[in-house]
């Protein structure tokens, strides 16, 4: 097939077709239709998954490696999973001495549907780094799985996902030489969700929003997250932020605050302050800092700009039974850490 070099969006020959597509989309939106984004995996379900992956059987080990590949390398979909080989991964030692697994060139759809690696340089900075002190170390799971598949008689030394044996015989071989097909790899996360008793059935497309959400809530900038997921701009990353229990809780808190404001009432401060030692209250509200010398409010209200939502600040206040407390009349010292974007207000 010969490429003509035509722009089907801008070329006048496609004007009528593009106009029709635009009208159909507008009609769909007017009828109440909306894009249904894939939801991120809830934090509670991630904890359940960690308990489920125990590496006790060939199936459990493969399921853990399967999930880790999706999770740590930030790829979406299932099309690329079947094409993975042992050569798709490379071990490398980092400058700090840690061992890491790097995913080499993949053909993941990412930019305007492109699948050519020269045009879609995906995940070039994503790494799976060893954490030896953790029983959930992804590199240890990867290396254990690799040792099991390389021991399979007749293995073609290419296929990465091999069909697990239902039981391990005396020969100690965990897998067969038959590769796992795309029709098994595609819905595998749904099967894992069911077996692990997760709150809902997830698909591989849910993993990338999870990666973005977890890194975002940990304080990483959207620019750095994009280097892991392969996105070309921060707007594409921001639309993946979790839509689930945490966001529902935040939205409910915002609604409650608006109700209080509408009623013209504020919570009454406690008449006596506790004599307990000062404690640190974490907030992601940049607006709380402007009032820090007179009061401190524990809140998660993202009233600042989107770029400020990742900045976490630690306010030291007196222990009290109310949200709004009087600030101590003492000298205030400010400590700022540019590396971690943390600002501390310490009263001496």
UniProtKB/TrEMBL annotation:
<keyword id="KW-0597">Phosphoprotein</keyword>
<keyword id="KW-1017">Isopeptide bond</keyword>
<keyword id="KW-0832">Ubl conjugation</keyword>
<dbReference type="GO" id="GO:0015074">
    <property type="term" value="P:DNA integration"/>
</dbReference>
<dbReference type="GO" id="GO:0003677">
    <property type="term" value="F:DNA binding"/>
</dbReference>
<dbReference type="InterPro" id="IPR013762">
    <property type="entry name" value="Integrase-like_cat_sf"/>
</dbReference>
<dbReference type="Pfam" id="PF12012">
    <property type="entry name" value="DUF3504"/>
</dbReference>
<dbReference type="InterPro" id="IPR011010">
    <property type="entry name" value="DNA_brk_join_enz"/>
</dbReference>
<dbReference type="GO" id="GO:0006310">
    <property type="term" value="P:DNA recombination"/>
</dbReference>
<feature type="domain" description="ZMYM2-like/QRICH1 C-terminal">
    <location>
        <begin position="123"/>
        <end position="193"/>
    </location>
</feature>
<dbReference type="InterPro" id="IPR021893">
    <property type="entry name" value="ZMYM2-like_C"/>
</dbReference>
<keyword id="KW-0233">DNA recombination</keyword>
<dbReference type="InterPro" id="IPR052787">
    <property type="entry name" value="MAVS"/>
</dbReference>
<protein>
    <recommendedName>
        <fullName>ZMYM2-like/QRICH1 C-terminal domain-containing protein</fullName>
    </recommendedName>
</protein>
